[in-house]
Design brief:
Strand order of the largest sheet: 2-1-4-5-6-3-7
Mean pLDDT: 84
Order of helices and strands: HHHHHHHHHHHEEHEHEHEHEHEHHH
Number of helices: 19
Number of strands: 7
Radius of gyration: 29 Å
Largest sheet: 7 strands, mixed
Structural class: alpha/beta
Shape: globular
Low-confidence stretches: 362-373
Length: about 450
Amino acid sequence: MLSPKSSTFRLIEVLNTSAASLLVYQGVVESKVGKSFLNFLSCLQQAQIAAAQNSVFSEKNKCWQAYGIFFKALATQNISWQTYLIKGIIRDENPFSRISQTTNFNEIPKPLIDAAKQDLQALQSLYKCTGEQLSEWLQEVCHAAEGPVFWPDEIGLNSDKLNAKIVEVLQNSKNWSDTVEELAIYYRQYGTGIFAENFALRWESGEFVEIKNPDPVRLDNLNSYEGQKEALLKNTEFLLAGFPALHVLLYGSRGSGKSSLVKALLNEYGKKGLRLIEVSKADLKALPNIVEDLRNCPHKFIIFVDDLSFEEDDDAFKSLKVVLEGSLTARPQNVVVYATSNRRHLVREFFDDRPRPKDADEIHSWDTVQEKLSFSDRFGLTLTFEPANQETYLNIVKHLSEQANIPLSWQQIQPRALQWATRHNGRSGRTARQFVDFLTAELTLTKNP
């Protein structure tokens, strides 16, 4: 077993102290990977205690088990220990990374900068623990004939383009404490936490949750409604450029591509800082709080509400109205609401709602009716999607079939497309997509039975 005087034991002791001394970056080692790594180091450090108490066998088993848990944690994420640490630093939300997003570096309190420097130096010492070295330590502690399989350090180093520069800075730096200003600039430009890592999220159970497999639809997949598309793109580019952008209502017939158009914006502008937050109608009561949470983030946010409509006295109506109209709190320039609906008048109105000559229930009943009817006008931009006529429907089918490389002539496709619309859901962009998907699968199976 290791002696307290051995160089390996002293190094392990220093690493444990480094991890315990973190002041602001504790979150980097608090995930499953980080905790399993620290537990493995702790088991190695306990080796000399086990040797003194003649409980070597049980301590050996603990070391092997701890290493196995650590290895499995890396394998589950398909990531090396080194990459895990760098990504953790880039994504960690802590007092230093948060203040860096809204404050110039020379205005950040010096104690906070010093704490970040100390932590970065400590994390760099952990970073230098290669998989091969950890395997050798276990072999030395347990007097094994050979060390266990170790996770290669190069696996998982494929970073997205937004992170490439700062990853390179950390990888090539001899002293991470010298990178603190570059990290602060990175945080200010790209943010931290879940918004730095994910383009698409949803509000669920009171928190932001990543959407792991967002819709891959792209703008060039969408044909027709060019005027509506152009207006939405222009408004979104205003948002990205930091100018006041308008809240948008996309309303019209079902299947016309309203939702797909909003989702396609993410695939067009995600790498330019756009984030899409999906909020269900049931969660609209939390909308004012959601907007405040996003206010100081460097990203630009579209809050996406699909298939919007309200019932009488719906609390969600009031919450959305506050966000659209504003309150005493200044409206954040980095957040807009894009909502889709099949209804032009979003609040359902009944004949009984209309004022009667002897209506004694409300003195100004017409005012209530007008508020309901004009609610959609509170969106700064309203885009109308009319039902697709035959020409529009066929244009969409032709566009999609060309993208899918369907090996049939247009003369062969057209009558089948019209027949499909008659027998199924009528003429719309959604029907066109369903037809092309079905035809593609049918032809592929016929070719390769």
